[in-house]
Amino acid sequence: MTQSAIYSRVVGTGSYLPARRVTNQQLADELATRGIETSDEWIVERTGIKARHFAAPDQTTSDMAVEAAKRALEMANLSADQIDLIMVATSTPDFVFPSTACLVQSKLGVTNGCAAFDIQAVCSGFAYAMATADNFIRSGAYRNVLVIGAETFSRILDFNDRTTCVLFGDGAGAVVLQASSETGILSSALHADGSYSNILCVPGNVNAGAVQGEAFLYMDGQAVFKLAVKVLEKVAHEALEKAGLEASAIDWLIPHQANLRIMTSTARKLDAVEKMVVTVDQHGNTSAASIPLALDVAVRDGRIQKGQTVMIEGVGGGFTWGAVLFRM
Ligand code: UT7
């Protein structure tokens, strides 16, 4: 008897943004009180960002992840106990340990003992998590996997550093990936180059009961910019090639929402500027949450339809990068 192929299909999406929305002007006014000069004009021109959301002081990454997950589960028509695996892509976990995924499992009320772990690939985290989930599903190990990207980057921003603090925001996005005989994920490609670890990092750790080193985000913006443009184009073509598709097959391109200039430059090379989903203007850079947030927005507003081909691609600290091509 021949067994039919198993695919991983997106059967639910969800997202969550914290209530506090801060426009560029509001942020510039706040920074001015510390003697830091910036402007709405500079931020929009260099990044495309107009506003971002910041978590409340008592709101954690797992809190936001749970809200996004509930919405994805509702769309998938699944109860919490039907989940076989929970993965949270985050660089801003609630604690050193336990993993944010374990906290999410508990807060969702999942009592079936399903596996739960975090993925740490910074802004590429969601692409890494989708590809990992796909492998678990295609191997037959799991049927329903909750894949979440959630971040509270506001906690690691140095609000005295105008070159970074205007760029990032908080939020969460989630998908439910399900085993199916229908085509879902078509291909994925993941990469890393640890020799660039120092151009985007939070170079601190916990030692002897205190933070040693710096617990603030550091970024060499121009070095990241150059590398990002180069690797995103390459990895997009790699994923297309693996699936045996041309760039023209892409219906929707969802790049990591870091900077509109980087996003547009990559989209141009794929001739997909019109097909790009853009949320960076309203969300800022939410690291691992940016792609599932954008995906959920475009699914819920009706742009992304069943049967269409979507490419997600991310790049971030590590240095890491990756792309996943799937059919909705
Ligand atoms: O998610 C991880 C991936 N991260 C990224 O994709 C970020 C990649 N990098 C970038 O997006 C860009 O490099 C930035 C948006 C971070 C910076 O844009 P840029 O065009 O590379 O600007 P720059 O660093 O060359 O700075 C230009 C000028 C400088 O002033 P001088 O030296 O020309 O006088 C900066 O001091 O802009 C100044 N500047 C600012 N001015 C007003 C830097 N930050 C600000 C600011 N407001 N917030």
Automatic annotation (TrEMBL):
Span of domain Beta-ketoacyl-[acyl-carrier-protein] synthase III C-terminal: 240-328
Residue ranges constituting the Beta-ketoacyl-[acyl-carrier-protein] synthase III N-terminal domain according to the UniProt record: 117-194
Domain free text: The last Arg residue of the ACP-binding site is essential for the weak association between ACP/AcpP and FabH.
Biological role: Catalyzes the condensation reaction of fatty acid synthesis by the addition to an acyl acceptor of two carbons from malonyl-ACP. Catalyzes the first condensation reaction which initiates fatty acid synthesis and may therefore play a role in governing the total rate of fatty acid production. Possesses both acetoacetyl-ACP synthase and acetyl transacylase activities. Its substrate specificity determines the biosynthesis of branched-chain and/or straight-chain of fatty acids.
Natural source organism: Pandoraea vervacti
Family named by the database record: Belongs to the thiolase-like superfamily. FabH family.
Residue positions of the active site: 123, 256, 285
Subcellular location: Cytoplasm
Protein name, per record: Beta-ketoacyl-[acyl-carrier-protein] synthase III
InterPro entries recorded: ACP_syn_III_C, ACP_syn_III_N, FabH, Thiolase-like
EC number: 2.3.1.180
EC main group: transferase
Keyword Nuclease: no
UniProt catalytic activity: malonyl-[ACP] + acetyl-CoA + H(+) = 3-oxobutanoyl-[ACP] + CO2 + CoA
Pathway the protein contributes to: Lipid metabolism; fatty acid biosynthesis
PANTHER family in UniProt: 3-OXOACYL-[ACYL-CARRIER-PROTEIN] SYNTHASE, BETA-KETOACYL-[ACYL-CARRIER-PROTEIN] SYNTHASE III, CHLOROPLASTIC
Keyword Plastid carried by entry: no
ACP-binding as annotated region, ranges: 257-261
Keywords: Acyltransferase, Cytoplasm, Fatty acid biosynthesis, Fatty acid metabolism, Lipid biosynthesis, Lipid metabolism, Multifunctional enzyme, Transferase
Summary of subunit composition and partner proteins: Homodimer.
